[in-house]
């Protein structure tokens, strides 16, 4: 009886040890499989976010936007500017004239932006805009002391940037006073646009100065001198919002997985520690019982 008890105890201990190691190893394999599956899922989400980011960047890129008249893209910042609301192009074809006081110049100016300020140019007398071939394309004018209108440049629909300054040039106006008899020197105008988000009106044009009564300079303060979004990019905000949502979902599930994995590891360690202590205590109890039986025998 005594001789069979010790081998039985030893065999039971070996079997228990193998069972415990089998359970631990199977759980480790399951844990590895779960980690691998979650890692593949997170990798797929990251690739999706990267593709979405590239698509949003492409949508925000205005370098390949087909520019319409009176619009421009800043080559330094790639920002889009739209001056059409200041003229007939953005006013359903209605004439939009802007007045500027000449102060010490002694004359006031009427200016159109990307369009003419004249309502009925064809009905004007021949004495007005002398030397101008197409009166319907006059971009700005003033009335001289004799009551005749003088063009300060023909309209242009191609604004441009000089450094960080947005400008619009009108050229080929009326013949400059005091120029040669061949009329090769004609009046021209430069409009410099300044971004003003606090202005209460659509725009305010100020006369800055002139050179030899032939070149004129104006400053235009307007909210339309600020960068805006091209029509191609109207849906870019939606894609940006979806991109942010995808990032939030990825962070939420990634953080939840890490937290669950941490808690699972804590629970597994505590269970394995409890099983190891229980197994050791059981072995010690069996040994003590066998020793007591030998003593009593």
TrEMBL record:
One of its GO terms (cellular component) is late endosome. One of its GO terms (biological process) is vacuolar transport. Residues 68-228 form the MRH domain. InterPro entries: Man-6-P_rcpt, Man6P_isomerase_rcpt-bd_dom_sf, MRH_dom. The chain crosses the membrane at residues 236-262. It is found in: Golgi apparatus membrane. It is a single-pass type I membrane protein. The keyword Cell wall biogenesis/degradation does not apply. Keywords: Disulfide bond, Glycoprotein, Membrane, Signal, Transmembrane, Transmembrane helix, Transport. Its main location: Golgi. It comes from the Eukaryota. It holds the Pfam family Man-6-P_recep. Gene3D superfamilies: Mannose-6-phosphate receptor binding domain. This is Mannose 6-phosphate receptor-like protein 1. The lineage of its organism: Eukaryota, Fungi, Dikarya, Ascomycota, Saccharomycotina.
């Amino acid at each position: 009886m005594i001789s069979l008890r010790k081998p039985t105890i030893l065999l039971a201990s070996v079997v228990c040890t193998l069972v415990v190691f089998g359970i631990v190893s199977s759980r480790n394999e399951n844990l590895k499989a779960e980690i691998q599956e979650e890692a593949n899922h997170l990798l797929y989400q990251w690739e999706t976010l990267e593709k979405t980011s590239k698509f949003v960047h492409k949508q925000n890129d205005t370098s390949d936007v087909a520019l319409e008249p009176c619009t421009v893209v800043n080559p330094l910042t790639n920002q889009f500017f739209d001056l059409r609301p200041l003229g007939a192009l953005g006013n359903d074809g209605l004439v939009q004239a802007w007045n500027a006081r000449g102060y010490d110049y002694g004359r006031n100016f009427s200016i159109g932006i990307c369009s003419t300020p004249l309502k009925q140019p064809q009905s004007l007398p021949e004495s007005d805009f002398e030397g101008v071939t197409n009166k319907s394309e006059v971009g700005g004018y003033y009335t001289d002391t004799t009551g005749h209108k003088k063009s300060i440049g023909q309209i242009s629909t191609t604004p441009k940037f000089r450094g960080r300054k947005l400008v619009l040039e009108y050229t080929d106006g009326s013949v400059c006073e005091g120029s040669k008899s061949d009329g090769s020197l004609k009046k021209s105008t430069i409009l410099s646009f300044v971004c003003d988000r606090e202005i209460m009106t659509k725009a305010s044009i100020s006369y800055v100065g002139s050179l030899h009564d032939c070149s004129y300079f104006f400053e235009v303060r307007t909210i339309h001198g600020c960068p805006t979004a091209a029509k191609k990019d109207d849906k870019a905000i939606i894609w940006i919002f979806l991109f942010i949502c995808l990032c939030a979902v990825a962070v939420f599930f990634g953080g939840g997985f890490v937290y669950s994995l941490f808690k699972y590891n804590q629970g597994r360690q505590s269970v394995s520690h409890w099983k190891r202590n229980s197994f050791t205590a059981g072995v010690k109890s069996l040994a003590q019982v066998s020793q007591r039986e030998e003593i009593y025998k």
